[in-house]
């Protein structure tokens, strides 16, 4: 993603939220703890028991999952993406980015300082 061109189109920060899901509480906690302990994310919110309905290998499937809201920086995203890929049990784990356009200045400063 070309963050420079995105920033010119809208007034966004370099802070992002990464979304992924996990098939169990244990897996969600393992991923979240790894990301925060290794300073890849400032914070990860775990949202329990979301239901996902999706198409997989030609069939419509349904699964109870845990949603992870990962707060990090655009610069830190590649390491977050790689860690999710390494730690996740899914063949193709969700890993998408939502830019943070604006927010509380002290919170955004803390977020940036918490990520290496």
Would you mind describing this structure in some detail?
The chain is of the alpha+beta class and 116 residues long. It has a single domain, classed as Alpha-Beta Plaits. Helix content is 35%, strand content 35%. It has a four-stranded antiparallel β-sheet. A hairpin with a 2-residue loop joins strand 2 (43-56) and strand 3 (59-73). Helix 2 (25-37) packs antiparallel against helix 3 (77-87). The longest helix is centred in the N-terminal third of the chain and has 13 residues, at 25-37. It is globular and about 45 Å long. The protein starts with a helix and ends with a helix. The model has no long low-confidence stretch (mean pLDDT 92).
Structure summarized in a few sentences:
The protein is α+β, with helices and mostly antiparallel strands. It has helices at residues 3-9, 25-37, 77-87, 105-114, and strands at 15-22, 43-56, 59-73, 96-99.
List the helices and strands and how they pair.
Elements (H helix, E strand, L loop, with lengths): L2 H7 L5 E8 L2 H13 L5 E14 L2 E15 L3 H11 L8 E4 L5 H10 L2
Antiparallel strand pairs: 1-3, 1-4, 2-3
- Structural class call reads alpha+beta
Count of β-strands = 4
Radius of gyration: 15 Å
The CATH topology name reads Alpha-Beta Plaits
**Low-confidence spans: pLDDT under 50, at least 5 residues?**
none
H/E series, N to C?
HEHEEHEH
Q: How confident is the prediction overall: mean pLDDT?
A: 92
The helix tally amounts to: 4
How far apart are the termini?
20 Å
User: Looking at the structure, what is the overall shape?
Assistant: globular
Count of all domains:
1
Major beta sheet summary: 4 strands, antiparallel
State the CATH architecture. 2-Layer Sandwich
The amount of helix comes to 25-40%
The first-level CATH class is given as Alpha Beta
* Spatial strand order of the main sheet: 2-3-1-4
Proportion of beta-strand residues? 35-45%
């Amino acid at each position: 993603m070309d963050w420079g061109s995105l920033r010119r189109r809208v007034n966004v920060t370099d802070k992002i939220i990464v979304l992924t899901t996990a098939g169990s509480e244990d897996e969600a906690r393992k991923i979240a703890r790894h990301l925060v302990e290794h300073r890849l994310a400032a914070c990860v919110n775990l949202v329990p028991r979301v239901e996902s309905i999706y198409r997989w290998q030609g069939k419509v499937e349904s699964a109870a999952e845990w949603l992870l809201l990962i707060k990090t920086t655009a610069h830190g995203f590649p390491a977050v993406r790689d860690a999710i890929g390494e730690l996740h049990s899914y063949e193709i784990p969700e890993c998408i980015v939502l830019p943070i356009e604006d927010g509380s200045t002290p919170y955004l400063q803390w977020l940036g300082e918490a990520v290496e």
